[in-house]
Design brief:
Blueprint (H helix, E strand, L loop, with lengths): L10 E6 L7 E5 L5 E3 L13 E2 L1 H16 L3 E6 L1 H12 L15 H14 L7 H17 L4 H28 L3 H18 L8 E5 L5 H9 L2 E3 L2 E2 L5 E2 L9 E2 L9 E2 L3 E6 L2 E8 L2 E4 L26 E3 L14 H12 L4 E6 L6 H10 L6 E6 L6 H9 L5 E5 L6 H8 L7 H13 L23 H4 L1
Parallel strand pairs: 5-6, 5-16, 6-12, 7-12, 16-17, 17-18
Antiparallel strand pairs: 1-2, 1-18, 2-3, 3-4, 8-9, 10-11, 13-14, 13-15
Helix pairs in contact: 2-5, 2-6, 3-4, 4-5, 6-7, 6-11, 8-9
Length: 466
C-alpha cells in the first residue's frame, strides 16, 4: 500500500500493575508509540508524553516476575490462547462456539439456552448452553418414554460430531502450517515455560483450561514439560476421582534419601473436558487421538469403547450417564480449581479467558476474599465488557492486575517483552547480588532466605541499573 494511503489506526489498552490505584488507559498506534487516553491519569507517565515498550517493561516484567514466584501459582487459559496460536500459524481465527441449529425442538432449545445465558450475565447463548438444554430435554423425554428421544439423541450426536470436527480442523490448520507453525509453537513454548519455570522450593504450577483442544498438551510435549492430571494408565488412561498428590522426583548423584523435585513438571486440569475424553461404560477414558486428526470417529470404534459415538465425548456440559450426579466428572475438576486457588499466598493468572463462566467466576471471587491472593488478567480484548464488569463487581483493586488490549494481550509481544524469562534459577539471584554490589548496598546476609533488592525508582529499567 502506498505511504499516502496508509491509515494509522488506534486501539485502547488497559494496564493496572504495581502501585496503580486506578486503571491506566492508553492508545496504541501502528508506529508502536503510545499515548495516554484523554480521560486517563497516570503517576509514571506525563499526560502529553509519548512512550514505548521501554517505559512499559519496567512496570510489567518485574511485577509479573515477583507474582510468578508466589507460594502457589495457577494459570487459567481460555480460548484466547488457541485463537492467538492459530492466528500466528495460519493468519486465521480458530473455530468458535457460536449457536448451532437443531433439527428437533430447535426453537425451544434456542429460547431456553438464551434464558440460561442471560441468567449468567451473557446476552446470547452459545454451543455449551444449547447442549446443556438439549441433554436436559433428552432425559425428560427418556423418562416419558417419548419416541422423539431417539431423534433428539441422534441430533445431539450429529452436532457433537460436527463440533469435534471443527476443533480437529483448527488443530490440523496449525499442524499443516509448516514454517509459521514452528514460530507459533516456539512462542507457545516460551509462554508456558515462563510460568512453569518454578524453583524447587515452590509448589508446582497448576494449569487450568476451558479449551477442548489439545494445543497446551502439544506445546508442553514440545517443551519437555511433564503434565500431571487425573488420568492413570498408558494405552487408554482412565480418569480417577481420587486426587493423588503424585509428583516426580530424582536422586542427585552421591546423595541418598534426599530426593529433589524434577524440573519442568506442572499439574494440568481441563475444566470443560476434551475431545479425546470418552465415556466407556462406568469409566471415563482418554483415547489416543492424534493432534490434528481428520476425524474422531475411527478412534471411537475400539472394542474397549464398545463402538462409542460422539454423544459419549466428555465435552462440557455433556455428562456421563448412570451417575448420581449429572455433573460428573466436572464437579471433581472444578473442586481441583477451587482447592488450588483458594488458599493463602496464591496468584491466579488468566490469559484469554472472557469471564463467561459463572462457575469459574464464583471461585475467583471467593479466592480474592483471602487478602494474600492476587489475580492477574491478561486478554487481547474485552468485547462483551465482562472483564471490566467483573473487576468492578469484585471491588478489590489492590489484589487485581490488568493487562488488556491488542498490545498488552498480544501473545508474541507479551512473550517477547513482558513475561519473565523462562528460567528463574540461581543466575537470577546472582544477578541480584551483583546489582547490590555495583550500587554499593550492604553485603547480603547468607543466612537469610530473603534477598534485599536495591532501592530504585519504579521507572528505572534493568539496563539503567547495570
Amino acid at each position: 500500500m502506498p505511504e499516502e494511503q496508509k491509515v494509522n489506526t488506534t486501539h485502547l489498552n488497559y494496564i493496572k500493575t504495581r502501585d496503580d490505584s486506578d486503571i491506566v488507559v492508553f492508545e496504541t498506534s501502528d508506529d508502536d508509540k503510545f499515548k495516554l487516553s484523554k480521560k486517563s491519569t497516570c503517576s509514571w507517565i506525563d499526560g502529553e508524553q509519548e512512550f514505548t515498550k521501554k517505559e512499559l517493561r519496567p512496570r510489567i516484567e518485574p511485577w509479573l516476575t515477583s507474582l510468578f514466584q508466589s507460594e502457589h501459582l495457577n494459570l487459567l487459559i481460555g480460548s484466547g490462547l488457541t485463537h492467538a496460536v492459530h492466528h500466528l500459524a495460519t493468519g486465521k481465527n480458530a473455530a468458535g462456539m457460536g449457536e448451532v441449529k437443531f433439527n428437533n425442538f430447535s426453537d425451544k432449545i434456542s429460547s431456553a439456552s438464551k434464558s440460561s445465558a442471560k441468567c449468567s450475565g451473557r446476552e446470547e447463548g452459545n454451543f455449551e448452553d444449547q447442549i446443556r438444554v438439549a441433554n436436559e430435554l433428552l432425559r425428560g423425554l427418556e423418562v416419558l418414554e417419548d419416541k422423539k428421544a431417539d431423534q433428539l439423541r441422534d441430533d445431539i450426536t450429529s452436532i457433537l460430531t460436527n463440533f469435534s470436527q471443527s476443533i480437529l480442523t483448527s488443530e490440523k490448520g496449525i499442524a499443516e502450517a509448516q514454517e509459521e507453525r514452528e514460530k507459533a509453537f516456539n512462542i507457545l513454548i516460551n509462554f508456558l515455560m515462563s510460568f512453569a519455570s518454578r524453583t524447587g522450593t515452590r509448589d508446582r504450577l497448576n494449569i487450568f483450561t476451558t479449551n477442548y483442544d489439545r494445543l497446551i498438551e502439544a506445546g508442553a510435549e514440545l517443551a519437555g514439560l511433564h503434565l500431571l492430571d487425573r488420568f492413570l494408565g498408558n494405552l487408554m488412561p482412565i480418569f480417577r476421582s481420587s486426587r493423588l498428590d503424585l509428583d516426580m522426583h530424582y536422586n542427585p548423584p552421591g546423595i541418598r534419601g534426599e530426593p529433589r523435585y524434577l524440573e519442568g513438571v506442572s499439574r494440568f486440569t481441563k475444566l470443560h473436558g476434551s475431545i479425546d475424553w470418552v465415556q466407556a461404560d462406568k469409566d471415563i477414558r482418554r483415547i489416543g487421538l492424534p493432534f490434528g486428526a481428520k476425524s474422531v470417529d475411527p478412534y471411537l470404534k475400539s472394542p474397549a469403547l464398545k463402538n462409542a459415538t460422539a454423544h459419549q465425548l466428555m465435552i462440557y456440559p455433556n455428562s456421563a450417564k448412570d451417575r448420581e450426579t449429572a455433573a460428573y466428572p466436572y464437579v471433581e475438576l472444578f473442586r481441583d480449581f477451587a482447592a488450588a486457588t483458594c488458599r493463602p499466598n496464591s496468584t491466579l493468572v488468566c490469559y484469554g479467558y472472557s469471564f463467561g463462566d459463572e462457575h469459574i467466576n464464583r471461585i475467583i471471587e471467593d479466592m480474592l476474599t483471602i487478602p494474600s491472593t492476587h489475580l492477574v488478567i491478561i486478554s487481547y480484548d474485552d468485547p462483551l465488557n465482562r472483564i471490566i464488569k467483573t473487576y468492578e463487581k469484585i471491588g478489590r483493586p489492590p489484589q487485581i492486575s490488568l493487562l488488556i488490549g491488542n498490545h498488552l494481550g498480544d501473545l508474541k509481544i507479551l512473550t517477547d517483552h513482558y513475561l519473565p524469562k523462562s528460567a528463574i534459577d540461581k543466575a537470577t539471584f546472582r544477578m541480584s547480588e551483583l546489582l547490590k554490589q555495583r550500587l554499593g548496598t550492604q553485603e547480603p546476609d547468607t543466612k537469610s532466605t530473603t534477598i534485599a533488592l536495591p532501592q530504585v525508582s519504579p521507572d528505572d529499567s534493568l539496563e539503567d541499573l547495570i
